[in-house]
Design goal:
single chain; alpha+beta; seven-stranded antiparallel sheet; 11 strands; 26% strand; lyase; UPF0317; EC 4.2.1.-
Length: 266
């Protein structure tokens, strides 16, 4: 994608971005609608909703809940005039923990008993990192952010259990402290990193083989920095195998009407 295209996408309002997704724009959402918060999705039947809420409560670092739509609801305060079934670039449909479809519209899968959880996303603090001179390798290289399952286990809740998933951004060694400081001010969207440096300490044996997203080139003098990731609930669905669930496709988020600054603390 050309740099000018990135600039144009950054200028879109959330409503404009969601309209483009409804019309078929399919791409990761990092860098789109600069200044507005993005969210992961996990959509489950009502009978599983308490387990998801408890899982999020017990694992707030990877699963900070920004909002919940009641059973059957398709819009709310975070996407005014929007539709949760059509307004993301891509979704993943799971049956018994297995990825069975990756549609751009989930209307045909929709049921009146489905509860939607919107979970904080680290894309929300990327503008703050950029404003502090820390570039995003996945945007510069025009790929999706790399994400990895780790050897750290989440606290189980009811029928759900699974590993912590992390996203990775290479940061110049001289700017790592700045990256920690900047992102620590956004606890509602994962906050400070969970790990800096050697990926093997997280059980990641090959940094060039992410479980989700795409690999990025790590330039000399850069250090891999890992943040908790809202794909964690998907990993729990894949491990725990509930009968039915829907999520966003990793890196293809809901762009909300909330401002990044709404989730910034002093």
């Amino acid at each position: 994608m050309k740099t000018t295209d990135h600039v144009d996408l950054a200028r879109l309002t959330p409503r404009e971005a969601r309209e483009r997704f409804r019309r078929g724009l399919l791409r990761p959402t990092s860098g789109i609608s600069a200044g507005y918060a993005q969210a992961n999705l996990i959509i489950v039947p009502r009978e599983l909703a308490f387990d998801v809420l408890l899982f999020a409560q017990r694992n707030p670092k990877p699963c900070p809940v920004l909002g919940v739509l009641d059973a059957g609801e398709t819009t709310g305060e975070l996407l005014k005039d929007g539709d949760i079934r059509t307004d993301l670039p891509q979704y993943v449909v799971y049956e018994n923990g297995r990825d069975i479809a990756r549609p751009t519209d989930i209307t045909e899968y929709w049921r009146d008993d489905l509860v939607t959880f919107m979970v904080g996303c680290s894309f929300t603090f990327e503008d703050a990192l950029l404003n502090n001179g820390i570039r995003m390798a996945h945007n510069d290289q025009d790929v999706n952010v790399p994400m990895y399952r780790t050897n750290r286990r989440c606290e189980p809740a009811g029928s759900l259990s699974g590993p912590l998933v992390v996203s990775m951004r290479p940061v110049p060694a001289s700017q790592v402290a700045d990256a920690v400081r900047v992102t620590s001010r956004y606890p509602a969207v994962h906050g400070a990193p969970v790990h800096v440096g050697n990926p093997e300490e997280l059980g990641i044996n090959d940094i060039n083989q992410p479980d989700f997203g795409d690999p990025v080139r790590i330039e000399p003098g850069h250090i891999p920095v890992f943040w908790a990731c809202g794909v964690t609930p998907q990993a729990a669905v894949m491990e725990s195998r509930p009968q039915f669930a829907i999520s966003h496709a990793p890196g293809h988020m809901l762009i909300t009407d909330a401002k990044d600054s709404d989730y910034q603390v002093p």
